[in-house]
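From the pipeline queue, job 12 of 40. The input is one protein chain; the requested action is below.

Action: predict structure.
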Amino acid sequence: MKLPKNDDREFELAPAGNHLAICYQVIDLGTQTVEWQGQIKKQRKIIIGWELPDEKMTDGRPFMISRRYTLSSYHGAKLMEHLNSWRGVPFSDDDYGNFDIQNLIGQPCQINLLHEASKDGTKTYANILAITPKPKGFTERNPPLINDPIYFSLDEPDQVTWDKLPDWMHEVISKSPEFEALNSKDEPEKVVEDAGDEIPF
């Protein structure tokens, strides 16, 4: 038996600062078990991804950035903080329960990226510091998406989209009760929304 090839590839780091960004993916990860400061919680998670049309990697493709969020409408949740600042208008009572996050795909914004080192100091990541409406100067300009738009929801799963997701997403999603329920007659476990949303994502 031979050792596998080293898959710890160097990745190109998106530059720090403010960038025009276009949302190209929203992925439902289902309910995940997370631990924070000794507490075990179950929270519905999503990933939102953007491409940076004005910042290109060495192969000519735009940089891509994503963030994992807790799917929560609590006013203190990071998802709500970013969506409110992205839209520039706070959500109304009528929006809750009616806003379809699929509508984020194709929407422009401005993302502020900050370079931060991992806890062990071995890697550096480009983390999203803030999301705001796209600059006024881009009112007439909406660059087309380079990446294929991807939306996946466990409420209405699509096999074609599922097949496009990377293996690591398959592994994460497969651990959720929503995924398990797709192959059984049992209803997925109901999860009470965690109002504190204290666990970072």
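Job complete. The CA atoms of residues 51 and 64 lie 4 Å apart.
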